[in-house]
Amino acid sequence: MTATGTFLPKPGAAPLPRMIRAQAALETRMLLRNGEQLLLTVVIPSLVLVLFSTVDIVDTGSDGSTVDFLAPGVLALAVLSTAFTGQAIATGFERRYGVLKRLAVSPLPRWGLMAAKTCAVLVTEVMQIVLLTAIALALGWSPHGDPLSVALLLILGTAAFSGLGLLMAGTLKAEATLAAANLVFLLLLVAGGVIVSLDKFPGGVRSALELLPISALSGGLRDVLQDGAGMPWRDLGILAVWAVLGLGAATRFFRWE
């Protein structure tokens, strides 16, 4: 105590950026310690990449190498598994067990928690992308295109799926979130252009599927990394709309308990 009624350190909340960094670091450690999460986010995309690149199971509709078609789609799958499915399930059970209820009485605002969770997802995705890229290169992948376009697609894709995952976790019961998140994951794996080209679908269905965030992410990554295209503005626009809608709805309707 330095003077009457004055205490050091000064009581009160830490600066908001520091709170978000601390929560993001905690969320990252929790993600990496969860075996089920690692199975979903690392093992499954890696197996999909290796299996479908080495065994002639699915007609990708591509004239080039199979791995050149699959690698961008698997990168999109990694974002989906981490930012949406894994995060929705983990956050849903945190809400059920009262973890979020305790965080609700802390100075960390609701949007700050979402920002911290999204940052943790981005850290995990960096490790995923490094691993999947190494596997794809070992299988003969020859990527092209602008790294900036790839980074923008991955960041907007992460924001879009993170918002949707948090919206689901913050509004449904944990068991419902578990079932719904896994079901959506499987449906988008098949119908999102990840391992099956959207050209295989009828015209009307394809037009609707192209508006999904997974289709925009996998299609944009494929245009850049496989075909060497420029900035995929249409796909970036679709992802930006989903990101704004998802994060906005999550901020508005997310319930702590």
From TrEMBL:
Query: What highest taxon heads this organism's lineage?
Result: Bacteria
In terms of one coarse class, where is the protein primarily found? membrane
Keyword Membrane on this protein? Answer: yes
Q: Give the transmembrane region(s).
A: 38-58, 70-93, 114-142, 148-169, 176-198, 236-254
Where found, per UniProt? Membrane
The keyword Transmembrane helix is assigned to this record = yes
Q: Which InterPro entries match?
A: ABC2_TM (IPR013525), ABC2_TM_bact-type (IPR047817), ABC_2_transport (IPR000412), Nod_factor_ABC_transporter (IPR051784)
Q: Which UniProt keywords apply?
A: Antibiotic resistance, Membrane, Transmembrane, Transmembrane helix
Membrane topology of the entry: Multi-pass membrane protein
* Name this protein carries in UniProt: ABC transporter permease
What sequence ranges are listed for the domain ABC transmembrane type-2? 36-257
